[in-house]
Specification:
This protein is of the alpha/beta class. It has helices spanning 15-27, 47-54, 68-77, 99-108, 179-184, 197-207, 233-250, 253-276, 280-295, 297-301, 323-328; strands at residues 2-11, 34-41, 59-63, 81-88, 92-94, 112-121, 136-139, 144-146, 149-150, 153-154, 165-166, 174-178, 211-222, 318-319. The strands form 3 sheets. Strands 1, 2, 3, 4, 5, 6, 11, 12 and 13 form a 9-stranded mixed β-sheet that branches. Strands 8-7-14 form a 3-stranded mixed β-sheet, with no helix packed on it. The protein has a two-stranded antiparallel sheet with strand order 9-10. The protein is globular and about 50 Å long.
């Protein structure tokens, strides 16, 4: 069956989230040509039984094991015939009418490969949510930040970011993506497993001539940290490793050596800060991330062979300075006062 929009929730042992949020997704995603899917990543809890008994209208895609966020979505989306995919976390509460502004925007902007709604904090609904807010950006060293969230500083939404603008990345918590562009570029990078893969995908969109946008007339609420909490060493490892993977794959040849060298120095400064505060598992996570990056450089080089790279100066969605410097030394902690 062909769909205009396929809303696809990737689930792994998320029975409690499905029970809480899936009815909301169903009731607010009604419309001709819209299908709601749950792609299950080999769950061992009661997720499948819950779907069978309570959500018979939801289309199930059952994967045989946990392939992670990236490969799990790739395997699922290859089985769906739709014009647009929505990658939606299981811990997201959508709002009435949330889909239509995204559909309308993508229909009228054929060069847009992806867009994202305004993502708010489920627990503190007046605040932006950490992973996405009102649109994502990165600095020259690959550190991500958002309209509404710069590093640890999260803003209250007072309609300051209500305009649709071109952004650098759309959050994987709720990413509305053109299926043809997604499939053309091979989807998310399986080697990432989880974390940063959506930023890498959006960077590849840009290097291929596409655009990514924020559409804040659509709004959702995200719990966040449902699979791996922020203080988890494995999550830290994935973020450090995948940042280097992303930079290596996408940086212009003129930028790659200097920027990755400086990023590695910054990583080690943070590693020794962990060591000084007796966070030994976090220190090991940084060491492990760098070790795996250097072991896989030849593999990562394969991705660079057929890419059309843009320098940082050619891409106005990349903050051509250090967000760490601006945040900690210049006290610029809101997106609105950063000067791109």
């Amino acid at each position: 069956m062909n769909f205009k929009v396929a809303v696809v929730i990737l689930n792994w042992n998320g029975e409690r989230f499905l029970q809480k949020f899936l009815p909301n997704v169903q009731s607010n995603s009604l419309g001709e040509g819209v299908g709601v899917f749950v792609a299950d990543n080999g769950s061992t809890d009661g997720s499948l039984a819950l779907l069978d008994s309570n959500f018979k209208d939801v289309i199930q895609i059952r994967l045989d094991k946990n392939y992670g966020f990236a490969e799990g979505y790739n395997r699922a989306l290859q089985q769906i015939d739709a014009e647009y995919f929505v990658l939606l976390n299981s811990d997201v509460e959508v709002t009435e009418g949330w889909l239509q502004p995204l559909i309308d925007f993508m229909d009228s902007h054929p060069n847009a490969a992806a867009c994202a709604p305004k993502i708010m904090d489920y627990s503190r609904k007046e605040y932006f949510e950490y992973a996405g807010a009102a649109g994502g950006f990165i600095d020259r060293f690959g550190y991500p930040f958002c309209r509404g969230r710069v590093l640890s500083e999260i803003e209250v939404d007072v309609n300051q970011y209500n305009s649709s603008i071109e952004i650098f990345w759309a959050s994987g918590a709720c990413m509305f993506v053109r299926a043809s562009a997604y499939l053309k570029l091979g989807g998310l990078d399986d080697s990432f497993f989880a974390h940063m893969e959506e930023i890498d995908l959006c960077w590849r969109f840009y290097n291929s001539g596409f655009e990514v946008w924020s559409v804040p007339t659509s709004k959702v609420y995200h719990v966040g940290g449902g699979t791996l909490p922020n203080n988890n060493p494995h999550k830290l490892y994935l973020n450090y490793r995948n940042s280097l993977y992303m930079l290596h794959k996408n940086l212009h040849p003129k930028n790659i050596f200097l920027i990755i060298s400086l990023r590695i120095i910054l990583d080690w400064l943070s590693a020794f800060a962990y060591l000084a505060t007796f966070k030994f598992q976090f220190f090991k996570a940084v060491f492990k991330a760098h070790n795996h990056y250097f072991r896989n450089i030849n593999f990562l080089n394969q991705f660079r062979k057929h890419s059309n790279f843009k320098s940082i100066k050619q891409n106005p969605q990349i903050f051509a300075k250090s967000i760490l410097l601006h945040f900690f030394l210049l006290n610029r902690k809101k997106f609105s006062i950063l000067k791109f």
